[in-house]
Specification:
Blueprint (H helix, E strand, L loop, with lengths): L2 E5 L4 H12 L3 E6 L5 E2 L5 H14 L6 E4 L12 H16 L1 H6 L3 E5 L10 H9 L2 H8 L4 H25 L3 E7 L5 H7 L5 H9 L9 H12 L10 E4 L3 H5 L5
Parallel strand pairs: 1-2, 1-4, 2-3, 4-5, 5-6, 6-7
Amino acid sequence: MGGYVVTGSASGIGAAVCERLVSDGERVVGLDRQDADIVADLSTESGRRGAVSQILSAFPDGLDGLVCCAGIGGTSPRVELIPEVNFFGSVALVEGLADALAQRHGAVVLVSSNSAPQPSDDAYIEALIAGDHAAMAARLSAVSGHAAYSGSKQALARWMRHKAPDYARRGVRLNAVAPGYTRTAMTAETENHPEYGPAIKEFLASIPLGRAGETKDMANAIGFLLSGEAAFVSGSLLYVDGAHDAMFRPDSI
C-alpha cells in the first residue's frame, strides 16, 4: 500500500482520482477547502504552508504520490485567485513535499488543460513561471478570466517541463495531464454561463470522439502516470481530450 495526496479531492477529477486510488488499495489523503481529510486554502501562502505541514505529519515515512487537481475556472468572479490556486498552489505543494516524495521515489501528476496552448499574455505566463507575484498581478488586470485560466495551466505545464529533469535525478517523476472538456461542477458553471455557454456547446459538438470527457477518464490517465507501468515516463504532458488538441494543432508535437 502506497501513500498518496490528492488536492481538490472533494469533487470532480480529484474525487474520481481518490476513488481510483482507493480501489487500487492505496492510502489516500484528500485535501480541499472543505469536506476533506486536510482542509486548506491553497490560494494563500499561509494555507499552502499549513497544507504541506499537515501532509508531512500524515506521511512521516515519505510520500508515494501527489496529484494536484485543485483549480479555479475562468468564470470565477475573483480572477486574482485563478493563478494563486491553479499555479502557485500546485507548485508550492510539489516544492514543499519534494523531500518526502524523493524518500519513496514518488510520482507527481499536475492537472493542466488542453486549453493551455491557446494564446495568452506572455508576460503573465513568464511571471508565473518565474514566481514573480508582483509582475503577475500587474499583468492580470489586463487579461480576461479565460486567459488567466489557460495561462495558468500553460505556466503549470511549462514549469513541470523545466523542473522534471532535476526531480528525476532525485528519483521523482513529474508529469501532467491536459484534460479536454470534462463534465464537473466547475465546467457545468461555464456551460450554463450566459456569455460562455453557447461557445461551450459548439466546442462540445466538435470533439472528435463525440462526447465530453468524464472524470473517470482523467482518473484512469492519472492512475497510469502514478503507477509502475509508467516508471520511465517523466516530463510528459498527456492530452486526455478525445483528439481535440490533435484536431486543432495537427502539426504541433
